[in-house]
Every structure is written in structure tokens, then in C-alpha cells.
User: Fold these one by one.
Assistant:
Number 1:
Amino acid sequence: MSKDGSAAYFTTRVDAVVNWARKHSLFPLPFGTSCCGIEMMATLCSDYDMARFGAEAIRFSPRQADLLIVAGIINAKMAPVLKTVYDQMSEPKWVMSFGACASSGGIFNVYSVTQGIDTVIPVDVYVPGCPPAPEGVLHSLIRLQEQIQKGETVAQRRERQSRAGTLKSIT
Amino acid sequence: MDINTPVPTIYGDQLEKFGELWKKQVQTLKEKFGDAIEEVLFPKEANTDVPIIFVQAARIIDVLGFMKNDAGFEYGFLADLTATDEESAPRFHVVYNLLSRKSMSRVRVKVRTDEENAVPTAISLWPAANWAEREVWDMFGVRFEGHPDLRRILMDVRWEGHPLRKDYPLRGYQIFPTPEAIDPSLLNY
């Protein structure tokens, strides 16, 4: 702390330590709706072993999770369910859009499928592929960890920007 | 096996097996219901695998009930109830696929209808027709007269339009981020 009482050096260091702890202890909630879920399981299993990055503690309750992995196609009827699950998670929370269907609707360009889950919830990291290879999932997990170290989720950044009036577009 | 040999389908030998039976049954129906049987399409004569019997909408329950219970028919199993949008007048065909578990033969009964004219419900004959008719209402907008609970079954209750109609846009997205409201009366059963 400086002499006038303003906090400067000390709190940023705590943020860094907290973010460092958070990024190495992600609790994923698997929202596997179709074949991408199989690839997510493969990433969790011993060959690729997501535990090496501290994200092996799967939680099936949104209250206990801080990373929502949306693996698979989200139908229009599933969209409010996904939104409810996302809302039930406690801050800070991150979302991984796993595979082509979750990211853009994939091949299902029809009335009954959401064209990307970012029309419903904010997404932090997208994994391309149909389905993505486990290496890609781990790569995106590392990218997500870099984002977490920076200390702001996409939802938080959008909220801050919309308050400041600098938000360009919401997809 | 010669590559040009036709692959036997599930209905491949149905005509040899049930051709006589079908002819007899269609004859019986025509004698009993007369004008209510609008048209009959037979395999090989028309492009179909099983006989298609077009019935007047007003008499459909009589015909289905007769086909369900009469000793010569006994089509006790409603394999499917669906519809097609033909883009002609009248617009829709409501399709009843029937299976007789006694003779193991299948027939298809169809009713021509459109948006305005309702079809009598088949729940009195097959209780399972309830949800099938709700699905037809949801997807095609065909109304069923006497149905106790004609709500949407697959799409969101806030959905506008009927997505399996030919004039519904393929990419007519309607995404609702909030859960649909639940009718409290449905919870008291």
C-alpha cells in the first residue's frame, strides 16, 4: 500500500495468485449432448489425461463447477436448459464451446438447432473440429488457462465494456 | 450373388404373402363403407409397398374401428400416425400405419384434410394416438376434433408456425433463451 492509502502493488499480486490457483484447479461440468462427449471422455482418460492440467475433477452439479464444457449439438429446445445451467454456476465461470455444433450449429443449419451457443450464453474458448481431437481440447484448455491468468471472463469483460459504452457487438 | 439382383426390402415379399388377403379386405371395406372409401392404391399398380386406402375424414373412426375389431382384419396395432404436406388441395394427408399381429400384414390408411378441417381423433381406438396427434398438430398444424389435450409436444410453446410444412423456411430459427412457462394445472395429475 502507498502512503495515501490507495491499494496498488499488494492486491494485484493476490489476484495473480488467485488466478494461478483457479487456472490449475478447474472443475468442469460436462454438458455432453452428442458425439463430442465421447471425445471429451477420451481427453479425460489416461491417454491424454486432462488431470495434468488440473481439470480432472468432473462435477455434475452446476453449483460446484466453474468450467462449462458444452460438447455437442444444442437444439432450440435445449437452449433454455443450457442457459439455466449456466445461470446456476457461481462466478467466476468459464464456458468452452466444444466442437462445430456447439460453436456454429455445424452441419445442422435448420430451424431446430441453435447456430452456436454464443447466441444463448457467453463463450470463453471455442474448440474447432467435428469432433475435436483431444490434443485440440488440451490446446484450448491451455489457452483458457492463459485467459484465466489475465483475470477476466468474457462475460465479465462484456459487462464492463457495456457499462463503459465501449462494447462493439454482442453476438 | 449377382450385383443386379434387387435387394430384398422389409416389404419385399409382402405382396406374395398378403396380396390375396389385402384384395379381400379392400373388397369388404368397399362393400361395407361404399363412398367413404375414396381411393385404393395397390402395390405394383401404384408406387407403394402396402395398400393405401384413402378414407373420408368423417368416416375415418368407423373404418379404423372396423379394421381394428373385425375378425377378417384385426389391425390392432397402430404402428404410426403421421402426416404429409402434399402442397395440393386438400393440402395434408394424415397417415395411419396399421399392423395386424394376427396375420402380420400391414396397411396404410390415409385421410385428406387441410388447415381448416379437423380430423376426428383416434384416441377412442388407440390411446397411444394422443401424443402422435399432438406431434402432427405441432409439426403440420392439422387439428384433431375431440382431442382432449391438443398442445405442442416437441417445439417450444412460444413457437410460431408449424415447421414440417413445406412452406416453413428451413432456417426459420426461433431461439428462446428463457425456459418455457409451465402450465401449473399440468402438475396436478
Number 2:
Amino acid sequence: MRFVRFAVVAAVGAAVVAGCAPVQSGPASSGSDEKTGQLRVWLFDEVNRGPKEAVVKEAVEEFQAAHSGVTVDVQYVQVQTRAERFKAAFSDPKSAPDVAEFGNTDLAGYVAAGGFADISGEVSGWDEGADLLPAVLDTAKVDGKVYGLPWYVGVRALYYRTDVFAELGLTPPTTLAEIAPLARRVRAAKPDLLGISVGGKYTYGAMPFVWAKGGEIAEEEGGKHTAAIDSEQARQGVAAYTELLRDDICPPAQCAGNGGDASVEAFRAGKAAMTIGGDFNRKSVDESAAAGKYAVVPLPGETAGSIAPAFSGGNLLGVMSGTERKTLAVEFLKLLGGKQYQQKMFTAMGNLPTFADVQAEVAKNDPFEEPFIKTLSAGARFVPVTADWAEIDAQAVLPTMFQQVATGAQDVNTATTAAAEQMNAAFGS
Amino acid sequence: MSQQVVRTRFRRGDGRVAYAYLAPALLVLAGLLGYPIYQLVLISLFDYGQEQVSGGAALEFLGLGNYRALLSDSQFWTVLAQTVGFAAVCVLGTLLVGTALAVLSTRVRTWARTLLFLAALGAWATPAVAGSTIWLFLFDANFGFVNEVLGTTGFSWTYDRWIAFGLVAAQVIWCSFPFVMVTLYAGIKAIPVEVVEAAALDGASTWRTARSVILPLLRPLLLIVTIQSIIWDFKVFTQIYVMTNGGGIAGRNLVLNVYAYQQAFAASQYGMGAAIGVVMTALLLLITFGYLRALRRTGEEL
């Protein structure tokens, strides 16, 4: 009896399983294009949101004044929980915004999920669009199509403590190979300081070392990516970076768990002689123990005078594919992401503009931005543009690789081979 | 013969009534438990990522593909072993501390017992995220109270794999012993005084009374708290996620739940995540049934 019941349940179960499939939401596009109503906008929350909010408010008022019957509702989304918010928005277009700010590394995954609309035509037909920096615009493209308007770029360079360097009679490094000995000397003279504050999870701080040695994260051929992090050049880069995660520079017990924020935090606390920081870290460093006692140079490359290729981070503004107000959404995009408001955002937040002319003007008036703009024009790099990158990123493949080497659990060859295998598994799926 | 027929019919009618009474509970169970498990198993058979959920890509039926990929991943086995070891330590620790304090509270004055219970309830009521964060503050390398007291400023409690596991285990025990303590305290108090008195009159020592009289009477309760602890500690997530910053340096403090979250849900590989969920459920059932069987073999009525 019991067996019969079990068999019936199993048979019914099998039939149900075979006949059903998990839910999928349909194609998101609604087709309608209304010219009035509420335009919903998602922007990222910031540690110090006030100035950003003020600029956005100004743009919203200008937009509402120019479009009668239109209101703009701006919501601020936490960066840490963005993945959940965006996934929910893609799965349920009804709860999605019309315009959203998002990080350029998330682009490929979002596009594969069908979340953002192709705005290639709108951007190329826009008079201001011609001045967008090509390298920056590339970070908004998937398969040659533009899915976002670059709102600002984020590049990293080498921060160092001028007082410490002056006291010890040191000059900033001019090649990548000089960084480790220099950092070692500082820590030997001042054991309270980290020679350079870097972290095992600080992928964007580490990748310039790999790129400077001629290595790559992955290579693309015919639309298919293959991991290249286990190449000879890439391995040299991984070795050069992890050399900094040693007791005589940045002890692993203290540094191996750090990402970018924590790395900069040690510099802010006055506990590091150098760090790799972004132009976006300036305000927070200016309000810290290191204020007034630091300077920034581009992270040097292999040869003296060269610059290590930086990661070109930054945020985009995109139009959601499910929007019922595409024309309005694109117009708002052009306003908030246009030259006038990028200039205002720079003044308010220090966000580096994405237009060549606006950027040049900004650099002219503010010498602080010079090393960052130099780094950017020397050629910045990007993560592999594929939806699989989101998976590799979430699985912490590269941080795990750096940490394995930093803790001495694996040597460079073993760790890079393992990372390459895991990346290829993701690329293959 | 006729008597037997009557009896059968009677019993069958009885069964129907019983089912009718059980129906509402069964419906709720089917809705709240059956349907999610059905969805979990179903999703685990597909390549089901964010692209598939939001309709950007077609669904692909993988059959047991997700399970094959999971079981052939060497990291899964490492994490599984870690999870079992970690849960075992936590369960033993929780039971030991809980039982010891339950016995202690039957033997101290009222004010001491009240104090003990207040402290235990405080630990119990603290949300896991808050508790983990407070422990992290206490054990912070540079500014932590513990390093201050021990004079070991700069020592990182979350760097070394085993020290980090030990710290998290201590936190888990801290927040789960009150359940064991309160339950067993109630159990001990419910033992009739005459029974203990009788043992004393027979000349049994305290140790002997505890072993031969109190412990057997407490066994059903012990069984429940043990199974509860196994299930809780096997599924621990918050403490590891918060205290080791998502699984420790290079993922060496991962346990199954955090592994599933990182490899599957954060990476939007819901099919794989569901497969890990199914495997975890099966493992828990196995462990629990194994435990019950082992007990039955030692002659316990269940």
C-alpha cells in the first residue's frame, strides 16, 4: 500500500515535472510611447548624497518646466543591493524605472537580461554625442550597440604621502618595479605605516599590474571569450601585485581581505604611505588624516615615463527597455547626462566628465584631475564585455586568486590556472 | 467473517474522518512546503539564470546537469566537509553550554537565576546580523575590546582559517544556547520531586541520579533540541557571511549556504542554486533520519 502510494506520487511528480517549466516573464517592451505622466528615475545613493541630489533636483525642475504634464520621480538605490533591485525590475517591468544609473561593469549582464534599450541612434544623432570620448563610449557598448550614456568615468592612480616621502628623501616611483622596494623602505623606516595599502579583493587596483605586463583577463575570438589570466605575462602581473601583500609591505593578515574602499580607508586613517585610489576618492581623503599631506601621480608602467593601463570604471545612464515613455526618457537622459549637467556634477561631486571638451576644461582649472586624465588618455582597459562577467564577478574568481597567492595557500601558477578554469566554465555556459 | 468486514468498514470510515480533520493542515503544508520544494526541484533541472527569468534567453532543460556539475566541483566537497565539521562543533558546543547552564540555574538562588535568564534571553533576542557585527567590533584587530584586554592589538581574529571558524562558532553557540538552556531547564523542573527523592532514599549519589534518573527522563527533550541544533547549525548563513566578509580570505571559511548564495544566487545561476538547495535538503533529511535510527537502535522509544 505504502509503495503504491509512493509510486503514484512519483508518477504524478514526474508528469508534472515533464510538463512544466519555471516561470519566465515575457518580452518587456510595451510599444507605447506616452508624452505625459510620471517619469521614474533610479540613481545610486552616495555616502554624501546632498550635492548630487541638489544637481539632480535642478535638472528635474528644468525638465518639468520644459515638459508640461510630466513629473519626474527620482529614487536613490543602494549600490550594495543594486543587483536585487535591478533583477526585480527586469523580471517585473511594471515596477521598473524608465531611466536608471548603473555601473558599466554590470552592462553586459543587464543587456543580456533584456533590461536596457538600444539607444545607438539617439546618441549618434545628438549634437553633444560627437564629443563623447570614444574609449569611454566603448564601455557603454555591447556588440557595437550603445545601451547607455556615460555619465562619468572613474580612474585610479597612485596616491602618496608627501610628508613621509619628503622626510625619508624619496621620490614617487617611475616604474612599476620600483613600487615594491619603495614601499618596503617606507615600512622599514616607519613600521606603523603600510608601505602601500592594497587589498586581496581590490581587483581594479590589481589589474593595472597585469595589463602593464602585457597580460589580459580574457581574450575574445569570434564572440567567444577564453580566459587569459594564466598566460605568462598575466602571471608576471599577478606576481608583481601580490608581492605587495607581504609582511614587509602590506601584511596579508591586515590587507588580504581588503577591497578598494578598505585599501583607501587605511590611507585616509594615515596608516599607509601609498595607495591606489580613484578620482572619486578625493573628497573623502580631503576630509581625513591625510588631508593636505598627499599628492597623486599616474600609476607607472613597465618603463620610466609610461603609465600602467587603468581600469576605466564609471557609471552610465540608460533607458529601460520596458519603458512606456521612451522619448521622454531619452530627453531626460540627454539633459542629465549632457555637458551642462556633467559640468555641474563635477563641481558638486568631483565626477570626471565623459565629454572630451568638458574634461579638458575641467583639467585646465583643477590640477588635481591631471594625473587621472593623463591615465585615461594613456589608454584605459575594461573587463570582458560578456554577460558571463557578472557571474565571474559574483563568484569572486579574481579576488580569490589574488588572496590564494597573498596568503601563500597557492603559488601564482596554481592560482591563475584555477582562476582560468573557473572563468572558462562560466564563459562556456 | 462478517465481523471482520464490519471492523474494516469501521476503520475505513474512521480514516476518512481523520483525513477530513487533517485536510486543512495538509493543504497549508502542501501550499507552504510542497509547492516551494516542487519549484526548487523543477528549477534545479534547468539552466535558469537572470536572462531566462526576464525572458531575454530561451530555457534549456539540463536534466541532472546542474547536479553533475556540482558534484564534480572539488570546492563543493571541501565546503561540504567544512560545513559538517563546523555544524558538529556548534551543535556540541550549544548542547554542552546549554545543558550546563540549565543545570546551574536549577541550583542557584532566584536572583542569580533571573540574571542568568535575562542574559540568555538577551543573547537569544539579538538579531543575527546585529550580534555578528557586535562580535566583530569586540574582536576588531585594531580597536577591539578583546585585543585591548589581551594586549594583542593588531591581531586579526578573522584571518587564519581555524581561528576565524572558531570565532564564528563561538558566536553561533552564544546565540543558540539559550534555546537549549530554557528548554532543558523547563524539563528538569517538570521532573516530579518524588522521583528524585526516591532515588535519594535508595542511596543514589548526585551523579548517579543525574545519569540514571534525570537524563532518561530528559531524553525526549534532548532529542528535540539536538535535531533543532543540527538543522540550524547546518544552515548557518548570517554569521559566516557577516563575520568572515562573505566566506573568508579566498573563500576558505565558506559553508554550504554561503557557497550556494555566492556561486549561484549572487551570480544569478538560479538553476545551480536550486540544485545546491535540493542537495542540502536531502543531506539534512539523511542526517536527521540517521540520528533517529541510531537512537532507536539503542532502544529509545521515539
